[in-house]
Specification:
The chain is α+β, with helices and mostly antiparallel strands. It has 4 domains: about 60 residues, no CATH class; about 140 residues, Nucleotidyltransferase, domain 5 (2-Layer Sandwich); about 120 residues, no CATH class; about 35 residues, no CATH class. Helices cover about 50% and strands about 10% of the residues. It is built from 20 helices and 9 strands. Strands 1-2-5-4-3-6-7 form a 7-stranded mixed β-sheet, with helices on both faces. Strands 8-9 form a two-stranded antiparallel sheet. It is globular, with a radius of gyration of 26 Å. The two termini are about 45 Å apart. It comes from Pseudolycoriella hygida. InterPro entries: MULE_transposase_dom, Znf_RING/FYVE/PHD. This is MULE transposase domain-containing protein.
């Protein structure tokens, strides 16, 4: 006798079958991430997938995919041996182009530190003669084991930023960075014109040694974050700023000091220092910190982002945040597949900047030029910069929350966009056009 399933029971049964199919695919498919498998199965059975949430079942799918995978290498020697195996190289050590090229480059092990270099040879062989580079590190997506940081080195090409090197490092010391950049320079002759980084001293010292002709630019966002963090540690200072709007306005002027040319920064600091004296001793500890850390230790030339096309590393910060979602911290060996999917082939960090960020840049550039030509005083410049909305907290998350104004498929321009692309997670095409593309 056949069982007749009604209403809620039928829906629950279909959800169970869909979930079972996803788990079975995860067991046999080691190259696609659980998220990709989940999306593909849900696309084929949309009715049953309405109440299935990936986040609630993610760990189950990951456990299914781990079945049959060998033990994760723990020591540096094991990692080096593992990455150099032919089967591993074919699976995660090459790019995803039609004609795969090497993505894994080498593992270097010394007595004090070690690092693994990953890079797309396709990008390396097509670099322009002069580069603008960005460098940022993250620890949130590093596999469990000896590595402590993933250093990402990007290059700007034709208005777009592309990851060039991914380096897993066991240490964040100047010696480790020196060794790394010497190794990179010996194999790939890079000629950066500008290098944008945060204010990590060991990293910046190593860059100065290996690229003496490059202009080393600090990250304006990291600068703001640093002084906000220090200000919050001064007893009663933030409470005072909340209760006195004039003091808060003065404090925020310090955010905009890097927007000035380096030879004007000391003058601007002295003017703000003089203005702060009208508040008695309230600003004394903050002024001392700013003078010691930024005027003396870092120096005006390291701080200034005057007329820079990109004043921050927020593109990389956003990219790192995106990676954190796509490459879960809890995973180990599975993460190698995710790295290959996300990184290999030259992922573009961003496609188009939002209008509000372009307008902000135009606003800053216009008044920087006026100040440079003597049409504005330092005080007038700071007053204008004070008009910037939330200049201290913006982050350019172009990939995560870009609003797509046109709802139609980019190919047929008839059907609505329905299919989300990997890895960008943008809606670009309808399902019909995607199916045709897959067939061709």
């Amino acid at each position: 006798m056949s069982t007749h399933i009604h209403g809620v029971q039928e829906a629950a049964y279909n959800e169970f079958k869909l979930n079972d199919r996803i788990k079975n695919r995860c067991k046999v498919n080691k190259n696609a991430t659980p998220r990709v498998v989940f999306n593909e199965e849900c696309q084929m059975d949309r009715k049953s997938s309405k109440n299935i949430q990936f986040g609630r079942r993610q760990r189950t799918y990951q456990r299914c995919q781990r079945q049959g995978i060998p033990r994760n290498p723990k020591t540096l020697d094991e990692i080096k041996t593992y990455l150099e195996q032919e089967e591993v190289l074919n699976r995660i050590g090459k790019t995803l182009h039609c004609e795969p090229k090497m993505f894994y480059q080498q593992t270097v092990i010394t007595a004090l530190f070690a690092y693994c270099i990953f890079a797309s040879e396709s990008i390396l062989t097509n670099l322009p003669a002069i580069l603008n580079m960005r460098i940022d590190g993250t620890f949130k997506v590093v596999p469990a084991g000896p590595f402590k940081q993933l250093l990402i080195i990007c290059v700007d090409v034709s208005g777009h930023s592309f990851p060039l090197f991914y380096v897993l490092l066991t240490r964040k010391t100047q010696a480790a960075y020196m060794h790394l950049f010497k190794q990179l320079q010996s194999k790939w002759k890079l000629t950066p014109m500008t290098i944008t980084t945060d204010y990590e001293r060991g990293l910046r010292n190593a860059l100065r040694m290996h690229y003496p002709s490059a202009e080393l630019v600090g990250c304006w966002f990291q600068f703001i974050q640093a002084i906000r963090k220090r200000a919050s540690k001064i007893s009663g200072f933030m409470t005072f700023l909340k209760t006195d709007s004039s003091a808060k306005k003065l404090y925020r002027k310090f955010y905009n000091i890097p927007l000035l040319k380096d030879d004007k920064i000391n003058i601007a600091f002295e003017l703000l220092k003089q203005e702060a004296s009208s508040f008695g001793t309230r600003f004394n500890e903050f002024i001392k910190y700013f003078h010691d850390q930024w005027i003396l230790k870092e120096g005006p030339s390291s701080m200034s982002v005057f007329l820079q096309s990109h004043r921050t590393n927020n593109l990389l910060e956003s990219y790192n945040s995106n990676m954190k979602v796509r490459v879960p911290k809890s995973e180990e060996l599975i993460k190698s597949n995710d790295y290959a999917k996300v990184f290999a082939g030259g992922t573009q960090v961003y496609a188009k900047r939002k209008k509000k960020y372009r307008d902000r840049d135009n606003f800053i550039n216009t008044h920087q030029l006026k100040f440079e030509k003597g049409k504005m005083s330092v005080t007038e410049f700071f007053d204008k910069m004070g008009e910037l909305e939330d200049c201290d907290v913006y982050i350019e998350d172009d990939d995560d929350d870009e609003i797509e104004m046109d709802p139609l498929c980019m190919l047929c321009i008839t059907n609505n966009k329905t299919t989300m692309l990997e890895p960008c997670n943008h809606l670009k095409f309808c399902e019909e056009c995607v199916n045709e593309l897959m067939v061709t």
